[in-house]
Amino acid sequence: MNEENNIFITPAVTEAEKGLRLDKFLSELNALSFSRNRVQQLIKGGFVSADEAEISDPAFKVRIGDVFCLEIPPVQEADPEPENIPLDVVYEDDDLIVINKPAGMTVHPAPGAWHKTLVNALLFHCQDNLSGIGGVKRPGIVHRIDKETSGLIVAAKNDAAHQGLCAQFFNHSIERTYNAVVYGVPNPLSGTVEGNIGRSKFDRKKMAILQNGGKFARTHYETVEVFGRFAALVKCKLETGRTHQIRVHLSSLGHALIGDKIYKQNHISTLGIPPALAPYLKDFPRQALHAATLGFIHPRTGQKLFFEVPFPPDFKELIEKLHNL
User: Which residue(s) pair with 13 in the sheet?
Assistant: First the structure.
């Protein structure tokens, strides 16, 4: 991509790609990394051309040798507004703030979720004291956890703290453990999962372990408790931090998280789940994943900080129901 002019020139269409819809061809280009919906918006908006002729139909069938030009318009970023949303503050000083995020809260604003995010809440709570390195849409945000994942997240109040924390995440020196409730029982009960993670070639909503490309990822897991043969409580320690890492790695072992609608698996019906419990597990409203601990070096004082938060009510109820069978 030409960053100065925001122009992207595709490789020529190959024999294997001949006849694909234009939106499908463009959305499957690894170098572009746009969703199919985003590609369709660009096509309909007149930002795609071939041989200097604009193509406005997403269903246009590509031909061998076709080369397409995409003009990428700049993203119009909305300034997030401070919102008086209660926060569970675990730790706070002049440099950073550690929050116990509830499940259901998006970390930073994005299309379709401009309000009621963690950023909106932090802007109100911290007033003008948030690092600007993350840009207008994500001030102070050093890392992220999924909307439906509960637990610990740290935000920076100034640029020095932001840089210091980011360096620790980059060097994989941050200590993070997650608790997950999964279908089935891992065998062996503890181990390490490695595999490069990148966007799935078959479903743009999913991440996947890739044989080629992607980013290296390593997860250490330990089974904490077993519930019959149909479920287990697993503790995961991240050595890297990739999008959906735990969900992808545990799913690759055949142990999808309870409540995970994206990485759910078809063999669940064979696990012998008690009939009285099956509807509850099927309807559990979010992936059963909780960021339980977070440890790092304070970027200004050099002090080792370590935080731990208990299971939230829904996670605790899930485990209690599994205990009682």
Answer: none
The answer to whether domain 175-293 has CATH 3.30.2350.10 is yes
Judge contact between 17 and 66, C-beta under 8 A.
Answer: no
In this prediction, residue 4 carries a pLDDT of 38
Confidence at residue 52, expressed as pLDDT on a 0 to 100 scale:
63
**Rounded Cα distance, 4 and 27, in Å:** 22
**What is the average pLDDT value for the chain, to the nearest integer?**
90
Contact 210, 283 (CB under 8 A): no
Domain locations in the chain? Answer: 7-71, 89-170, 175-293
Q: Which residues are catalytic?
A: 146
**Cβ contacts of 298-306, under 8 Å, gap ≥ 24:** 298/95, 298/96, 299/95, 299/96, 299/156, 299/160, 299/161, 299/163, 299/164, 299/165, 299/168, 300/95, 300/160, 300/161, 300/164, 305/91, 305/98, 306/175
Assign domain 89-170 to its CATH architecture: 2-Layer Sandwich (3.30)
Output the pTM of the full model. 0.77
**CA pair distance 59, 290, nearest whole angstrom:** 42
